Amino acid sequence: MRYAKRVFYSPILFERGLILLAREVKYVTEAIGKIMAEWARTGRKNFIVKVPESHHIKEFQVLLKQMLNHYRVPVKAEVKEIPVEIECGCGYKGKAKISNPSSALKILCPNCNTDHAKIISGKKIEIE
Ligand SMILES: [Zn+2]
Q1: What is the distance in A from the centroid of ligand 1 to the CA of 59?
Q2: Which of 31, 44, 57, 99 has CA 20 to 30 A from 65's CA?
Q3: What is the pLDDT of residues 20-67, one digit of tens each?
Q4: What domain range includes position 22?
């Protein structure tokens, strides 16, 4: 597969670890599907992809660019990071704490440090 080979040899991605990349593949694929459908339907060429900060933004961005190139989709997609906001059982409501951006990202309550808070904003990727 030509595409897999290109990703594997990209120095940035190799350094950050393929595991981070693998976590975003599903989301990038979904975003591309939506962009392509919209482009095919309306001919629109400029998109903003709003990605919650609970994702590996850099990997997402690189993958998105590579996949759009791969499929030769003539669109511009700008990635914007959006905050994750939570409502926690401890009474806290506001911006979540994102743990360890270098490996598995966890959404935590900055007040009680648990991860059972309800996400009220920044739950999923949106295309604009
Ligand atoms: Zn809490």
Answers
A1: 29
A2: 99
A3: 777 889 999 999 999 999 999 999 999 999 999 999 898 899 999 999
A4: 2-83+122-127
Structural domain includes residue 73 = yes
In the three-class reduction of DSSP (H, G, I as helix; E, B as strand; rest coil), residue 2 is classed as: helix
The answer to the question of residue 13 being in a domain is yes
Q: What token pair was written down for 86?
A: 């939570």
For residue 40, tell me if it sits in a domain. Answer: yes
Q: Residue 89 pLDDT more than 90?
A: yes
Which residues crowd ion ligand 1, with CB under 5 Å?
A: 88, 90, 92, 109, 111-112
pLDDT for 103 equals: 61
- Distance, in Å, from the CA atom of 95 to the CA atom of 87, rounded to the nearest integer, reads 9
Name 109's Cβ contacts closer than 8 Å, sequence gap at least 6: 86, 88, 90, 92, 96, 97, 115, 117
pTM: 0.79
